Amino acid sequence: MARKPNYGFEKRQKELARKSKKEEKKQRKLEGKDNPEGLPEEDGDKEEA
């Protein structure tokens, strides 16, 4: 007899994936607000001419 699939586990995994993706998106938005030009942040090691 085949085992019954554990739909609760699948649902939980999907929720965790969705939550982590949402957190990543939130972090990207916050980084975008800190850097409004949309340029990558630099450490200041670049020499100015």
Task: Report on this structure.
With 49 residues, this protein is mainly α. It has one helix spanning 7-34. Helix content is 57%, strand content 0%.
Number of strands: 0
Query: Helical content, roughly?
Result: 55-70%
Mean pLDDT: 83
Q: How do the helices and strands follow one another from N- to C-terminus? A: H
Query: Are there runs of 5+ residues with pLDDT below 50, and where?
Result: none
Distance between the termini: 75 Å
Largest pleated sheet: none
Q: Helical stretch count? A: 1
Q: Given the C-alpha coordinates, what overall shape results?
A: rod-shaped
Radius of gyration: 21 Å
Q: What structural category do the secondary elements indicate? A: mainly alpha
- Tell me the β content: under 5%
What are the salient characteristics of this protein?
49 residues, 1 helix, mainly alpha
Task: Furnish the topology, listing elements before pairings.
Layout: H1 7-34
Compose a concise summary of this entry:
The chain is mainly α. The chain is 57% helix and 0% strand.
